[in-house]
Prior knowledge:
Layout: H1 2-66, E1 70-79, E2 82-89, E3 96-107, E4 110-112, E5 120-121, E6 132-139, H2 145-152, E7 158-167, E8 173-183, E9 188-191, E10 197-200, H3 203-206
Antiparallel strand pairs: 1-2, 2-6, 3-4, 3-5, 3-7, 7-8, 8-9, 8-10
Amino acid sequence: VEFWKVYVEIIGILIVAVYTTVTALQLYKMREAVDAANRSADAAEKAANTAEGQLILAQQALFINQRPYVTFSTAEFVTPERIRIGFYNSGHTPATNVKIEDWGMFIDGKKIDQPGGGKQAFPGEAIIPAEQTLTGDFTVAIRNPEDAKELALGEKRFSVKGKVTYSDIFNESCFTDFCAVWDQFGKIFKSCGTPHLGCVQSPTKHGEY
């Protein structure tokens, strides 16, 4: 009887040991599977982030390469009362809805009052095709005869300053500041500063620019 009792106890211990081993192996396999799934999920997330980053970079490159770039190109007196201002589009796509905003003519730094409060569209169709220039004629509203005389003699400084605004093919609003000073002796307008330009855009479309 004692022999069989011991035998049964040994069998029970072996069964428990086998069960414990099998359970431990199952838990180990489950942990391996969970770890593998987590690694796969992390790799997928990294791949998605990389793809998203590459897409944003591609969008930025497309925007930078294809958008229009409008800059001040020329200014000249057509008559003593008329000035012609031109802007050049050096980009690869047309600039539309081109307007001169917040601009003015100045004598010795004092602004001459302009019709429309300094906001004026170009005459005619306000589009600058790629690699072309748009010009417009504007009245030099000098009301003081002495100013006109002293400007003609080069005794006073005449300048034009402002901002040209336009839209691009991405439906973004862009701008370029401009400034030019009349050189009475050289009979030409000279740029009076490096132009500041940029676009108001959505970071979700093109990223920061």
